[in-house]
Each structure stands twice: as C-alpha cells, then as structure tokens.
Amino acid sequence: MNKSTLAVAVAVGVLAQQAGAAGFIEDSKASVSSRTYYFDSDKREGSTSTAPSNAGNRQREAAEGLKFDFQSGFTPGTVGFGIDAQALVGIHLDGGKGHHPNANTFSPSDTDGSATDEWSRLAGNVKGRFSKTEAHYGGALQPNMPILIANDSRVLPQTFEGGTITSKEIDNVTFNVGQLEHATGRASSNSTGLSVNGATQDSNQFRYAGADWKVTKDLLLQYYYANLEDFYKQNFLGLVHVYPIAPNQSFKTDLRYFDSSSDGKNSSGQAGYQFNNNGGFAKNKGEVDNKTWSATFTYTLGGHAFLLGHQRVNDDGGFVFLNQGAVVDSNGRPEGAGGASFYSFTDATVGSFIRAGENTSYGQYSYDFASLGVPGLKASIAYLNGQDIKDVNGGKDLSEHETDARIDYVIQTGVLKGFGTTLRHGTYRGDGTTLVDEDQTRLIFNYTYAFK
Q1: Could you state, in order of their start, the residue ranges of all structural domains in the chain?
Q2: Given Cys at both, which of 138, 139, 189, 413 links 123, Cβ 3.0 to 4.6 Å?
Q3: Secondary structure percentages of the chain, helix, strand, coil, to 5
Q4: Residue 127's beta-bridge partner residues?
C-alpha cells in the first residue's frame, strides 16, 4: 500500500466518526460513468491488418471503461476536512494480438503482447478547507493547468499522486501550488515515477506554482512555474481576452508563451536523464532548451466559430512536457503510462507539431447546431500545417500537416439525458522516417449517472 492510499484509509476511519456532521454528507456527490471506446490507428507506411503485436502499424481495439467517483463535503468548523474516492475498471472488448501494439497507451499488454482482459485501480484523496483555501493529498489528482493537464483521451483517465493547494483568498485571483510524485497512466493499474518521453530514468518531484488573475470579466492573465527535478524548468505566461461585439458576436485572443530549460542531471549529461525530445533536433544533444509561443484568434457569430492561429517553436530544441512514455515493468513490458496532454492548440488527434524550429499555422471551423434548434449537436473541422522542422542533424527540411474532423452529440432530455457520442477522425502526413503517415478514427460513447 503506497503512502497516499494509507493516508486516505486513515482519514476515512477518522472522518467516519463525523459522517453525520452537517456538510460532510449533505454536500457530498457521487456518480458512475461509463465510456465505450473504439480506436483505429493505421500507420500508412507498411501497414497491414496482420501486423505483429509489437509492430504498431495497425491498431484496432475496443474497450469499456467504468468509473465511480465520490466527493464528500467538508466537516464543520474553522478547518473542514473531507475525502474523495475513485474506482476505475477497464475491460478490453475486442482487438486480438495482431491489432494491439505492445508499446500501447490504449490498454495494457499481457505477457504474449496481446491486450489484457481487464485492468483496474482504486485511489483517493484527503482534503482540507480553511476560508477560501483548499488542500488535497492523495493519488486521484487530475490537475488542469497550463504546465500540466491530466490526460483523459482514452478509456480511463490519467491520475497523479501528490499534494496540491488552491487558494482564492484574493478576489478574482486563483493561486495554485503543489508537488506531484507519481502518475498512473491511461492504460495501467500501476503508478510510476514522473519522467519525459524518451528518458529511461524518472523523478519523484514535480513542483509548480502559479496564478490565474481575472483582471476583468473579459480578461484573464496567467503565470506558472514548474520544475521536474533533474529534467526541466518551465515558465509560462498567458493572456486570454474576449471582446464582446454584440449579443451573439465576440472576438477572442489567446496568447501563450513557454520558456523551458534543463535542470540537474539533464544539464550535466547524466545517462538516462537525457532524451531525444519529440524525435527531433537539440542544440545540446539530450538537453532541454526551448521557447514556444502561440497566438490564436477566434471569431464567433451565433453558432459559427472561426479560429486562426500560429505557433512557433524555437530552433534550439522541441517543446517539453511531462510524459512517462518510456517506463517499463520488471519484465521489460511498457507500463501503459505513456500518453499525455499539453497546453497547445496543436495537441491534435494524431500529431503534436512541437519539434525544434517548427512553424505551425492552424485553423478551425466549428458549428453549434443549437442555433438551428438541435441543442447538444456540435461539429468541427481543423487543419494544421507545420513547416521548417529541424531534423536530428539540424537541417530545416521537414514538414507535416493534419486534417481533423469531429462531431459530438449529447442527448438533452428523456431517460438517456446526458448520453454522449463523439466521432473523431484525423489524417496526418509527414516527411521523413520519424514523421510517419497515419489515419486515426475514434468512436466514443459516454454516460454519467449522478446519484441524488
């Protein structure tokens, strides 16, 4: 039993004595969610439906995810206490050995390289509240900040273990600070250390601090600092402004800037802490050295939304973010810990568009059919084009592009109210052996029942 699970167990025992206290039960929430997921990935170069399990050329799998969430209220008093608990189960439905890549982030792999029948995990947090400040400690944390976003794009969500503090003592300002120590991947039952994809060592200290300042109802300013010990340090600055033109018109500006540099053992060149960042060029091989900025503008008119933007990754190295992709178990099999989200519009269905030197222009058109009397139905199409990518030798001769389409529908009334369907398709094409063409389709059914 890890220390966060033990802490939660002790807290449950203590708080059970106060279970009848006003607030702890009265303000509690519980829900059960299901997610049925079909995933089809076809790497076009040399793909075959009978590819061996570790080839990764053609993947066709389906799985069911079940999640139970409980969030208590807080006990009465100057300092209130509570607990959060989460139980997760993944059930593999289809996709034999020939359609399940061993290095996989959809479902775990068995000893023969095929998908396991099921995987599960149980986690929880203890929490405390004083005035407008909350502290959480445990293994069911799902942060959502510019410097770290818990990924929820497969069957089960990624979760983190550690401690966080969120404070709103100052009006219109939210402060966030914390230290995370482990992560549990989307396709795993086990927690692992924290790392960067491509490294072979890990770290148990990801520290961060930052603030969101709502200057006016239309203007948000952000600053965050993060440090993955022995890998990288990162500063983030953000600005989001919405200009209301008319009751059904607006113009949104979203500016983002990341400055990342090496830390500790990554700086000193120690083996295992250096990595080929995003499969591209680095001025100092294996070291983090990156500045990335983006500017995105969205014009909304009724149900229509038109988005245009540009992202620039500097020439010295690719963008860096937390991702435990290289972690393996005692038998040398991937832990299923890989797969991560990062705070960029170029985090697309297939590609990332974050290699050294890359200039990416992107656009998206989306429509909300509520304007036509069909609430819950939305559709979008996006295109991204990345140029000037530096290859591993520093030459600027690679490019990539992707077209994504998506449609979502959530039932608004009746017995199945809240039942959602999502269909996504991405077509990616790239230059060179490290930018492999891929078509990807995802069909997802989501439903959440909240107990009352």
Answers
A1: 3-451
A2: 139
A3: 5, 55, 40
A4: 82, 136
Whole-number Cα distances in Å, 245 to 157, 207, 299, 310: 38, 40, 10, 23
CB 210 within 8 A of CB 336: no
pLDDT at 32 over 70: yes
Name the residue among 182, 196, 145 with its Cα closest to residue 166: 145
For residues 120, 329, 202 and 227, what is the CA-based torsion angle, rounded to 10 degrees?
A: -20
Give the residue from 124, 159, 150, 128 showing the smallest Cα distance to 138.
Answer: 124
Read off the amino acid at residue 57: N
> Span 420-429, mean pLDDT?
97
> Half-sphere exposure of 273 toward its Cβ, with a 13 Å CA cutoff?
15
State whether the Cα torsion 267-272-276-277 is positive or negative.
Answer: negative
Q: Is 190 exposed, middle or buried (0-12, 13-18, 19+ CB in 10 A)?
A: middle
The pTM for the full model equals 0.91
Structure tokens at 369: 């059919």
- CB within 8 A of 20, min separation 6: which ones? none
d(C-alpha 287, C-alpha 316), whole Å = 10
Cβ proximity of 314 and 281 under 8 Å: no
Q: In angstroms, rounded to a whole number, what is the distance separating the alpha carbons of residues 413 and 368?
A: 18
Architecture category of domain 3-451 in CATH:
Beta Barrel (2.40)
pLDDT computed for residue 198 by the predictor: 84
Instruction: Categorize the per-residue pLDDT at 108 as very low, low, confident or very high, splitting at 50, 70 and 90.
Output: confident
Helix and strand counts by DSSP (H, E) for the chain: 2, 21
Q: What is the pLDDT of residue 47?
A: 42
DSSP, residue by residue, 255-281: EEEEEEEE-THHHHT-TTS---GGGS-
Paired tokens of 29: 């929430």
Phi/psi for 3 (5° steps) reads: -65, -30
Query: Chain-wide mean pLDDT for the chain?
Result: 89
